[in-house]
Amino acid sequence: MKNIENVVILSVEGDYPFKVFRGKLVVAGMEAGFEGVVYQSVGGPNVRTVINAEDAEALQKNGFSVETIELELQQKVLNGEILIEQNR
Known about the structure:
Layout: E1 4-15, E2 18-27, E3 30-41, E4 44-51, H1 53-61, H2 66-79, E5 83-84
Parallel strand pairs: 1-5
Antiparallel strand pairs: 1-2, 2-3, 3-4
């Protein structure tokens, strides 16, 4: 089941092989912030994302599984199904 409508990466920090990124996603019209890391390993890139605690609570109150959304978000990052906002 697809919950995430949109993912935007707002900032990326770090160097190879480890990058930290921050962004926002939209689920059912609700915006939520998140942080994540991408790092290289023998089998390819790995991604871990965490939705901000306050936003995670709001998603749960609206009947969404935060764990499911975080897994979907990780998959979208790995597949490049994101927008990257340019520095202004």
